[in-house]
Design goal:
The complex is a heterodimer of chains A (about 200) and B (about 100).
Chain A: H1 2-21, H2 28-48, H3 65-96, H4 104-129, H5 136-151, H6 158-175, H7 180-204
Chain B: H1 2-6, H2 15-26, E1 30-31, H3 32-39, H4 43-55, E2 59-66, E3 69-76, H5 78-95
Antiparallel strand pairs in B: 1-3, 2-3
Classes of the chains: A mainly alpha (about 200), B alpha+beta (about 100).
């Protein structure tokens, strides 16, 4: 009887420690949907920009104004859709767990995520307008990865390994620049889908 | 057995006080409303338990203003962290 009470106390302590310091209502579906959107975006970018270019030289290809606009529209649409789906599935998950979506943990997670992400986003835009389109897949992967590593301490630990993988893919994407978009699809598409499937399974038990 | 029990702390026998300490030891600080949301208790209830912990020197607070609204931040003191750590260890020993 006494023992049971103390066991419960220990469980309560653990639960309160994690609930008060981490945002745990990440939804697997949001990872999967964002990954699928990224794959669609990469495919669209491939169709509109890369496929028109000569295969032997497309690493250094000069983007015309027309294809730059197209690329920006595709990137913008991919980003907007990802954020929308991410918010939708995550809100649903917090409701399922009877938790508030806008509490101190969420705010802390978002501020810490936003600082590296916005820095990377602004830098990428500046470089893109200067014509360094080839760097985009690698740089976006690297900054996304850094943001994940940095934020993982405010949410589930697994995001740290996802972040490290994204950074590694980003560096590879810059080294093998002509294939950059392929690594981008791997990182933002495939990896996020895999994590979206695997992580919820680990947390079910 | 007696040795084990001396570290069990009356101050943490209560569910709400246990919750307050658990949250404060893993966070730098938490304000009154954040604690209230986490523990799902009324203002009066939370205030009286905080006062109890404060009297024992386990919790300290700092008052300031955010947008001209009073805001109270609560911290776990070094004594509080130590006592809480001992309490948890005593429970773990007891369950062995």
């Amino acid at each position: 009887m006494e023992k049971e009470r103390y066991l419960n106390d220990l469980k309560d302590i653990k639960e309160m420690m994690s609930r008060s310091s981490r945002f745990i209502s990440l939804s697997g579906l949001s990872g999967i949907s964002v990954g699928l959107i990224a794959l669609a975006g990469a495919w669209a970018a491939w169709q509109s920009v890369y496929s028109n270019l000569d295969l032997t030289g497309y690493g250094k290809a000069q983007l015309s104004d027309g294809s730059l606009t197209q690329l920006l529209v595709i990137a913008g649409a991919t980003l907007l859709l990802s954020v929308a789906f991410g918010i939708y599935f995550t809100t649903r998950e917090t409701q399922k767990r009877n938790q508030k979506i806008w509490d101190q943990q969420t705010r802390r997670l978002l501020t810490n995520l936003a600082i590296p992400l916005l820095t990377g986003g602004i830098l990428c835009l500046m470089l893109l307008l200067e014509g360094f389109a080839g760097l985009m897949p690698g740089l976006t992967l690297i900054f996304y990865g850094l943001a994940l590593v940095h934020t993982s301490k405010y949410t589930i630990d697994e995001l740290r390994s996802l972040g490290v993988l994204e950074i590694a893919l980003g560096l590879v994407a810059i080294q093998f620049m002509p294939l950059g978009l392929l690594f981008w699809a791997l990182g933002f598409g495939l990896l996020q889908i895999v994590y979206g499937i695997v992580i919820p399974k680990r947390y079910k038990s | 057995m007696k040795d084990l029990l001396k570290d069990l702390n009356k101050a943490f026998e209560n569910k709400i006080r246990l919750g307050i300490m658990s949250a404060l030891v893993v966070n730098d600080h938490l304000d009154f409303n954040a604690l209230k949301e986490l523990l799902d208790v009324t203002d009066g209830n939370l205030a009286s338990h905080l006062k109890y912990l404060e009297k024992h020197g386990y919790v300290s607070f700092k008052k300031d203003f955010i947008n001209r609204k009073p805001n109270t931040r609560y911290y776990a003191t070094a004594d509080g962290r130590e006592a809480f750590r001992r309490h948890i260890r005593a429970i773990e020993q007891l369950l062995k």
